[in-house]
What we know:
The protein is α+β, with helices and mostly antiparallel strands. Among the domains are: 1-147, Beta Polymerase, domain 2, CATH 3.30.460; 151-237, Hydrophobic Seed Protein, CATH 1.10.110; 382-439, Serum Albumin, Chain A, Domain 1 (Orthogonal Bundle), CATH 1.10.246. It has helices at 7-26, 36-42, 58-64, 113-118, 141-147, 156-162, 165-177, 183-191, 201-213, 217-227, 241-244, 262-272, 277-286, 291-318, 325-339, 341-356, 364-376, 389-396, 402-416, 424-439, and strands at 31-34, 51-54, 68-72, 77-81, 86-91, 93-95, 98-99, 103-104, 107-109, 128-129, 135-136, 149-150, 180-181. The protein has a 7-stranded mixed sheet with strand order 3-4-5-2-1-10-11. A two-stranded antiparallel sheet has the order 6-9. The protein is elongated, with a radius of gyration of 28 Å. The chain starts with 6 loop residues before the first helix and ends with a helix. GO terms for molecular function: CCA tRNA nucleotidyltransferase activity; metal ion binding; nucleotide binding; tRNA binding.
Amino acid sequence: MTIRGSADMSEAMEREGKEVLRRLGLAGYEAYFVGGCVRDSLLGRLLKDIDIATSALPDEVMRLFERTAPTGLAHGTVTVIMERYTFEVTTFRKESEYEQFRRPKEVEFISDLNEDLRRRDFTINAMALDADGGYIDPFGGASDLAAGRIRCVGDPLERFHEDALRMLRGIRFACEYGFGLEADTWSALVRHAPLLVHVAMERVSAELDKMIEGRAPDRAIRLLIDSRLPRHFKQPIEWPLSRWEDCPESFRQDKLKAIGGSELRWAALFVLMESDPASAKVAMKGLKFSGKKTDTIGRLLQTNDWIKERTLRVASREKSAAVNADEAFAMIADCCVMVGKPVVRDWFALAAWQSGALGDNRFRPFVERGSEWLERVPVDRVNDLAISGSEVAAELDEKPGPWLGRLLNELLALAARRKVPNEREALLRQAKILVKQECN
């Protein structure tokens, strides 16, 4: 076996993995590379890790290697720590009936590799490779790879009944590798869709995130719609996926693929669905996104909606579709104050996508000169002002209160737009002017 990908990583990982196989073999145990690493090596893809299956029991594995971690003893898994890489080494096992359509009730350690491979989800993941480069492929995984086919090991109804998340994994693999879903596998997936109600939304969300971030996010959306899986999630997600169905094929054909990154692609999906930030937040809450991810996507959408609205207002006032440079800079400065420079910088990618993939010319000035304008914004946080609240209060001979926060925010907006220099004396003079104007 020669693992393809980054040469240095591949050779070192293969060498250390084979050393694990060799030590297990010398001790009288069977040991093989299994699962995704075998599949991806046959496809010539870069590997992230190598999993190993063995006839040795967990305690026997730990006795053979100096550095190990008992990462999953209940399921027979020990992590073996070599010089540069770690390897999950799992005892051959078979699983009894499953609980709640997601985890085995009992795990039994066995000595038969074929039985171990039989419990796996899809044939392309049920292959093994020995230390001499010989393939063990009892279920036709290699031929399915060659045919571009996702097919369950054995009865697909049983495989999906055991773990309902496998239905989402099947769609993800089909999209990641550009494969089709074999007819019986697809039929079983559609039939068992209601079982997804038993799967935690965190697990569902992780699969959806991999699809959206993967090689074919648009196809993933179409397969989700065709299978109607989202209607059966523990937290049903009718939106935004249901609205995607109403879009003509030409509109939803490979649009998301044109933009990179998980947060940006989710933001782009919400843009395609014409979502406002509040509706998007409800959807993300249902998907159990982390607070950080929800906030990042929400701020991107907030920026997008704000600039859209402001651009339309300016265009209506000036009777022109174009926004001049001064107005555009002011918008960027205001957005920096509202959401921060890092979010605005990321939003430029979303603007470029809308300008290119969607042909929305409203964002063209921001695509062409956005980075230049962003660099001209001197401050985007109150803490970056050249004065503090206590200095302003002392200069005005006033006690601090809610008024002070409002005044500092006004100063920040002016400094961000370069209407006032971010200098102590200039800001104090402007503070006096603003207070006087408010009093009048």
